[in-house]
Amino acid sequence: MSLTVKEEQGYQYVDEGEGQPLILLHGLFGALSNWESVVERFSKNFRVLIPMLPIYTMPLRQAGLGGLTKFLEGFIAFANLDNMILMGNSLGGHVGLIYTLANEGRVKKLILTGSSGLFENSMGGSFPKRGNYEYVREKVKYTFYDPGTATKELVDEVFETTNNIPKCLRIVAIAKSAQRHNMAKEITKITAPTLLVWGLNDTITPPLVAHEFNKLMPNSILRFIDKCCHAPMMERPEKFNDMVEDFLLDK
User: What is the sign of the dihedral through the CA atoms of 194, 139, 206 and 222?
Assistant: First the structure.
C-alpha cells in the first residue's frame, strides 16, 4: 500500500485507521515506507501513526536522543494521544524506551525490533565514506539477510544522504548519542508488557543483545525470526506481523 503523508504544525506523519494509537518509530536510516506492511495489517483495528523523525533537519546542537525524544513528546501532544502502543526499530526503539521511562503510565505496550540502547554496530558513529557508492551499497546490504532487499532505490537514497554534509553531521551526532546512552540500568524499571522481535541473523544488534533486553526487562517476551537481519518488519513482514498481532491480542 502507498502511505499518505500529512503535514501539520511542522510534523510530517502518517495517520491511518481508528482505535487505540499504535505509534511506529523508524531507525537512523529508516523511512516511513519501512512500515508499509505493518500499517496495512494493523490500521484495520488500530490508529497507526508514523511520525517522520527529524533526523536530517533538526538543529545540529539538538541532534541526539534528547532532541528526538523531545520531538516525539511534542508530536504526541499535538496528536492528543494517550493509552498508546509504541513500536520502534533500531534507533526508534531507543527513543521509544526513553519516552516510556518518562511516561510509562501512557504507554500500555512496547514493541522493540533490532533496538539500540544496549549495543549496536552501525554505519553511524564515524563519518561515512562520502562519494563511495560501493561502500554504501555494501553497508546497506549488511543490514539485511537477503542482500536483494537492498534495492537500488534504497541504496541510492542512503548514498544521497551520506553525500549531504549537513545530513551526515546529524547522522554521526545522533549515532554517537545512541552509543553513549546505554540503558542497561534504566530499562529494568519498565513494567509495560514488552515484545522483543529479533532477526536471528541480525548483524547490527546481534541476538545476544535481544537476550540481554529480555533478561533486563521484567515484563518482556522474546521472539526470533530465522533468515532475518535488522529490519524484520521489512524482511519477514508476515511472520513479524503475526507475532505482533498475537502480542497485541493477548490481554
Answer: positive
Count, residues in the chain: 251
pLDDT for position 244: 98
CA-wise closest residue to 24 among 55, 8, 46, 57? 46
Dihedral angle of Cα 59, 64, 65, 68, to the nearest 10 degrees:
20
Q: Dig out the grid coordinates for 42 from the structure.
A: 494493523
CA distance 22 to 114: 18
Number of H helices, E strands in the chain: 9, 8
pTM for this prediction: 0.91
In which residue are the cell numbers 524484520 written? Answer: 232
Report pLDDT for 127. 45
Q: How many CB atoms lie within 10 A of CB 224?
A: 17
d(CA 43, CA 3): 12
CA separation for the pair 212, 36 (Å, rounded): 29
pLDDT along the chain (251 residues), means of 10: 89 96 91 90 97 92 94 97 96 97 94 92 51 80 84 84 84 89 96 97 95 97 97 96 94 62
Report the alpha-carbon distance of residue 156 to residue 177 in Å, rounded.
26
Q: Cα 202–206–211 angle (5° rounding)? A: 125
Rounded CA separation 196/205 (Å): 12
| CA distances, 142 to each of 124, 135, 163, 164, 225 (Å) | 14, 11, 19, 22, 17
